[in-house]
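Researcher: Next entry in the queue.
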Amino acid sequence: MLEIQAWKFDTEGLYLQMDLGEKKDYSIDWTDFLEGAALNLAEVVIGAGLTQVGPVVVNGNISKVVLSAAGAAGTYACNWKLTFGAGNLIEILKFRVLVT
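Model: Structure for this entry, 100 residues:
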């Protein structure tokens, strides 16, 4: 199972909660999920109304992104895309960001 820091989970799935105007970094440790494979690349696709500040940073099996809630209050669908193994395995983690 993934070790997820500062994230929440409800009946609709994984989500983050941010206040309008906040800028925060979020990370996920993928070690258990990867089962020995190497994490090669991580990308985040965010919904309009959010801003990604800089690229996703990969350090070992941990990927980190900085998000800014600079748009309007609302719920934004996002994806965290991983490429791992020999580069031929892709996993997409769907999550949402609630901006209040």
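Model: The two ends are 29 Å apart (CA to CA).
Researcher: Noted, moving on.
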